[in-house]
Amino acid sequence: MLKELYERQSIRKYLDQQVEEDKLMELLHAAMNAPTARNSQSWRFMVITNKEALSTMTQLQPYTQMMKTAPCAIMVLGDKKASQPDEYLYVDAAAAIENILIEAVHLGLGTCWCAIGPSQERIDRFRSYYHIDPDLIPIAIVAVGYGDEHKEKVDRFDESKITYYK
């Protein structure tokens, strides 16, 4: 059993401590080893460490309040030139994000995944604020840092959500 899968939590409060560059690179390395539809490798990443940009993010997406304490965030974008249809970009990004979340636990970091797309309003806000190329879709933003909260572990396994086709 891979313990990181079961220890992952959405962390919404962070210590005032920078994330080391080598750990950020490890997260991005893990992200880029995620599978993609047709091996398109359509994901792109923007690392945000600017405190003003992190705090302003709450105006772009209301569920990103944790960015006010997070020392950094990784925006996951989909490159429309790399994959068609656009729906594949979301699947590819989700796999990369999951790898980031699990690797972060392994590195002793906390994370919180917040959606940007498919809300066109949020996509437009992020695209405008961060000067994102029209060929890139901002799909999600992941807060990254050293957690300043401890949560009880919750086992979400629910056998009633399983069906079998034999």
Describe the structure.
By secondary structure, the chain is an alpha+beta fold. It has 5 helices and 4 strands; from the N terminus they run ααβαβαβαβ. The chain has a 4-stranded antiparallel β-sheet with strand order 1-2-4-3, with helices on both faces. Helix 2 packs across helix 4. The model has no long low-confidence stretch (mean pLDDT 96).
Indicate the mean pLDDT.
Answer: 96
Count of helical stretches: 5
Distance between the termini: 26 Å
Using only C-alpha atoms, the radius of gyration works out to 16 Å
Main beta sheet, described? 4 strands, antiparallel
**Could you list the spans in which at least 5 consecutive residues all have pLDDT below 50?**
none
Structural class, by secondary structure, is alpha+beta
In spatial order, strands of the major sheet run 1-2-4-3
**SSE topology string:** HHEHEHEHE
Number of strands: 4
Query: Percent of residues in beta strands?
Result: 15-25%
Overall shape: it is globular
Write a concise keyword list for the protein shown above.
globular; alpha+beta; 5 helices; 166 residues; 34% helix; single chain
Summarize the structure.
The chain has 166 residues and is α+β, with helices and mostly antiparallel strands. The protein has helices spanning 3-7, 21-31, 51-60, 86-106, 120-129; strands spanning 43-48, 72-79, 110-115, 136-145.
